[in-house]
Amino acid sequence: GQRKIALFLGPTGVGKTTTLAKLAASFAIAKQKRVGLITADTYRIAAVEQLKVYGEILGIPVDVIYSSNEIQKALDNNLDKDIILIDTPGKSINDIRQEMELKKLISESKADETFLAISSNTSYSACIKILNSYKYVPDYKFIFTKMDECDNNGIIFNCCFTAGKPLSYITNGQSVPDDIEIAN
Predict the structure, then answer these.
(1) What sign does the CA torsion over 127, 65, 43, 14 have?
(2) Dihedral sign, CA of 2, 84, 109, 70?
(3) Which H or E run includes 182?
(4) Sheet with 35-39, side-by-side order of all strands
(5) Considering only CA atoms, which of 114, 143, 36 is closest in space to residue 82?
(6) Per-residue pLDDT tens digits for 130-167
(7) pTM for this entry
(8) DSSP 8-state class, residue 30
(9) Would you call 140 helix, strand, or coil by DSSP?
């Protein structure tokens, strides 16, 4: 009976926006929830348009914010929603300026859940760098994407064990809303 806010983080190109669309479709269609979408991913060309197309197809409004200062207004626009999904720009592990903006967005959003998306075809050494670059996130759950593009799932166990964080979802293709599963 309470509104839930979920925020999605991760490096560039891991499929955060597509994953968010899959979850939005699942909540809206299968679970009959009122969903709101907010995107702060204004860095990548066509990211906003991609989410707006999914939103239009699903009949879900999309709020676009250009800085963390705008998150409260976007959340207020979605007071009638059961769940709000917040897309963030992909962060380079070396971009300190963007890290500061994401820290502020995390704090201002007061998200109930935060998800760190990592591509399943990422090497272990790259995963360690990603985990280190997101150490500032107080709590999160993993989403591993692109399971259909890898032949070794050990990276998932290794990351969950190393970070001490749970796995929530895996994605295994680009089809919205089908190619996502709750981890078990």
Answers:
(1) positive
(2) negative
(3) strand 180-182
(4) 62-64, 35-39, 83-87, 4-9, 113-119, 141-145, 167-171, 180-182
(5) 36
(6) 999 999 898 999 999 998 888 777 789 899 999 999 99
(7) 0.92
(8) I
(9) coil
